[in-house]
Write a structure and sequence with these properties.
With about 160 residues, this protein is of the alpha+beta class. It has one domain: MS2 Viral Coat Protein, CATH 3.30.380. It is built from 3 helices and 6 strands. A 6-stranded antiparallel beta sheet has the order 1-2-3-4-5-6, with no helix packed on it. A hairpin with an 8-residue loop joins β5 and β6.
Length: about 160
């Protein structure tokens, strides 16, 4: 299934955001192996949050490996496959934020990297899916906690 986020996308709970939603519009991706969207409108109560502009981007990018790797061959004597490369997928959010009064906007970059050992996507699909399910559920569940941690540095 192709990557196609829901729009508006419901954001995770945060202490200062009430029922946040983000209207996503397809954007030009940074390379041929990515898809990108920008935030064109906000929903819920998000006082002070900005939508996408050139000087203060607000984007969601999903990137797959430029060259998908495959599992290596088994050693004819031992039967061991010693070369099992990873295919790395990245989900990235960029959003401009101002570090202090009268300062230029800087990008907050949040990345999730997903390393899938070649072969597991075929041989053990359900466990790859379970790992992704846990990650996405944890990110959603921990959204407010991660927001507080970014503010206080405390875990």
């Amino acid at each position: 299934m192709a990557i196609s986020p829901t729009s508006p996308l419901t954001g995770g709970t945060q202490a200062d955001l009430t029922s946040p939603t983000y209207t996503l519009v397809s954007d030009t991706a940074p390379n041929a192996h990515s898809k990108q969207w920008y935030v064109s409108a906000l929903g819920g109560t998000q006082t002070g949050v900005t939508t996408h502009t050139v000087g203060s981007p607000f984007t969601l990018t999903v990137e797959r490996p430029a060259n998908l790797r495959q599992i290596g061959s088994a050693n004819p004597v031992t039967g061991v496959i010693s070369n099992i490369p990873n295919n790395v997928y990245t989900v990235r959010v960029r959003h401009g934020a101002t570090p202090a009064v009268d300062q230029a906007t800087r990008n907050v970059i949040v990345e999730t990297r997903i390393l899938v050992p070649a072969g597991t996507e075929t041989y053990d699909t359900v466990n790859v899916q379970a790992a992704l399910s846990l990650l996405i559920g944890a990110l959603s569940d921990l959204s407010s906690d991660l927001g507080s941690t970014a503010e206080t540095g405390s875990i």
